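Our preliminary data section would be incomplete without showing what the modeling component actually yields. Below, a chain of 126 amino acids is followed by its predicted structure, encoded as tokens that our downstream tools consume directly.
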Amino acid sequence: MSKAISKRVSKNHSLLLAVDEPWDTMKAQMLVKISAALDPKVLDFSNYDVMFHIPRVLPKPGMSLASDADYGFMTHRARNMTTQDPTINISIIEKASDETEKENQAESVGTGSVEKGKGKKVTAGK
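Predicted structure:
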């Protein structure tokens, strides 16, 4: 999160779970993957936006995966698929904190007025 949004790269991990796993197991497995990929200081599921999409069934950006009801909808869709091993893509994005937003705003300098030398005012262009 310390990098600008345009400079971040995604990290991909695989997770294999049965469709009848409970929501708590799914959430715990996602937290394990988050911990392995990002090694955050505080590991809290509410710090992340989780979305899922199913190729050729539910297009991107997909739907939220934040509760037991969302998980139930996802597993219901997976059970109705004709393939034996359905693939469901899950995107996990860390929510921006106030500090991160301030850092990213500080990087967008170059607009406004800048004082240079004695009494000369130079306006930065776009």
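Residues 103-123 have pLDDT under 50 and may be disordered. Residues 14-95 form one domain. Preliminary results of this kind motivate Aim 1 of the renewal.
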